[in-house]
């Protein structure tokens, strides 16, 4: 909960994504659910209606649908930089799950920790950063204390 | 067997002391000395750390603002103006830049800051002329405030 005790990072994109072509950072989505449990009802509805459309809209992402006997249905998202994100979808409705999937698609895989500054530039200064001689020619001479006249 | 009292004297404690202790120690891992290992010392140190973090959040805003003001004052003195004069005349010309932005301009865009200082100087001179000259001279360019609806 302290700034030094918790991880933090600067705002950045993965390999300047979006400057040229935009590459979807979501590599793989695995939907783990149960065929008969009540908690996976929303997931099963989503798989009936929405999964195929989602997979067609995001051709860069591989969607795995794995029915297992499990108590809690999960969506495991893997990103191109290797981060894995697990979301529990117990007792969620189908539109909620599609919202969750769009959120995961739009994320880059960077860690969700405190971002130090909400901006980032590679070129912060256009007119040249200030240095002690920007507004003062060096021919003027160094700054001296003002008591020299009295001495 | 009818000796049941002995088994009643056995207490079973809570099952998750380890995890409760680790929850506190994980916030103390980067401390110095035994505070990062021993629970009793760590509890007190972690509580103080959180208190400092809370007050620090309020102090950070104040400190950042004084830093910006110091930098703007130094930059404006390079151009022969003082900080109160600069800010007052900028608000009078309806330049609604906050101190953070003006400080960044002074650091990374020195020529833009120079133009801001000149604008404030011009407005200041107009103010002096309006106060001292009194009436006959036309109002200055920068004193005309444009109200955009």
Structure characterization notes:
The complex is a heterodimer of chains A (151) and B (149). By secondary structure, chain A is of the alpha/beta class. Helix content of chain A is 19%, strand content 19%. Chain A has helices at residues 41-49, 51-57, 94-106; strands at 8-9, 26-33, 62-67, 74-79, 84-88, 114-115. In chain A, the strands form two sheets. Chain A has a four-stranded mixed sheet with strand order 3-2-4-5, with helices on one face. A two-stranded parallel ribbon of chain A has the order 1-6. The radius of gyration of chain A is 27 Å and the shape is elongated. Chain A starts with 7 loop residues before the first strand and ends in a 36-residue tail after the last strand. Chain B is mainly α. Chain B is built from six helices and no strands. Chain B has helices at residues 5-8, 17-25, 39-78, 83-92, 99-108, 110-133. In chain B, helix 3 crosses helix 5, helix 4 crosses helix 6 (110-133) and helix 5 crosses helix 6 (110-133). The longest helix of chain B is centred in the middle third of the chain and has 40 residues, at 39-78. Classes of the chains: A alpha/beta (151), B mainly alpha (149). Chain A binds chain B through residues 1-5, 124-130, 134-136, and chain B through 27, 29-30, 49-50, 52-53, 56, 75, 78-79, 106-112, 114.
Helix and strand topology:
The complex is a heterodimer of chains A (151) and B (149).
Chain A (H helix, E strand, L loop, with lengths): L7 E2 L16 E8 L7 H9 L1 H7 L4 E6 L6 E6 L4 E5 L5 H13 L7 E2 L36
Parallel strand pairs in A: 1-6, 2-3
Antiparallel strand pairs in A: 2-4, 4-5
Chain B lengths: L4 H4 L8 H9 L13 H40 L4 H10 L6 H10 L1 H24 L16
Features:
heterodimer; A: about 150 residues; alpha/beta; four-stranded mixed sheet; two-stranded parallel sheet; 3 helices; 6 strands; about 20% helix; B: about 150 residues; mainly alpha; about 65% helix; Large ribosomal subunit protein mL43 (chain A)
């Amino acid at each position: 909960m302290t700034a030094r005790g918790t991880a933090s990072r600067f705002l950045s994109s993965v390999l300047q994504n979006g400057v040229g072509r935009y590459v979807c950072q979501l590599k793989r989505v695995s939907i783990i659910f149960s065929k008969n449990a009540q908690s996976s009802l929303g997931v099963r509805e989503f798989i009936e209606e929405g999964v195929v459309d989602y997979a067609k809209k995001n051709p860069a992402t591989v969607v795995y649908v794995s029915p297992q006997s499990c108590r809690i249905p999960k969506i495991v998202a893997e990103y191109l930089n290797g981060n894995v994100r697990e979301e529990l979808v117990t007792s969620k409705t189908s539109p909620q799950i599609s919202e969750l999937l769009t959120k995961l698609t739009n994320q880059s895989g960077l860690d969700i920790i405190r971002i130090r500054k909400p901006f980032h530039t590679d070129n912060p200064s256009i007119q040249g950063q200030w240095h002690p001689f920007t507004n003062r020619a060096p021919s003027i001479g160094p700054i001296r204390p003002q008591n020299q006249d009295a001495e | 067997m009818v000796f049941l009292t002995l088994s009643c004297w056995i207490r079973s404690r809570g099952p998750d002391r380890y995890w409760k202790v680790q929850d506190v120690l994980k916030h103390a891992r980067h401390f110095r000395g035994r505070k990062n290992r021993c629970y009793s010392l760590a509890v007190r140190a972690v509580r103080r750390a959180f208190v400092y973090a809370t007050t620090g959040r309020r102090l950070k805003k104040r400190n950042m603002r004084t830093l910006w003001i110091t930098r703007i004052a130094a930059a404006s003195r390079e151009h022969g103006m003082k900080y109160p004069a600069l800010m007052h005349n900028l608000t009078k010309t309806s330049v609604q830049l906050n101190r953070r932005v003006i400080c960044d301009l002074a650091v990374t865009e020195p020529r833009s800051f120079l133009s801001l200082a000149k604008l404030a100087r011009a407005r200041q001179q107009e103010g002096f002329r309006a106060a001292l000259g009194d009436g006959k001279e036309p109002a200055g360019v920068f004193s005309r405030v444009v109200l955009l609806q």
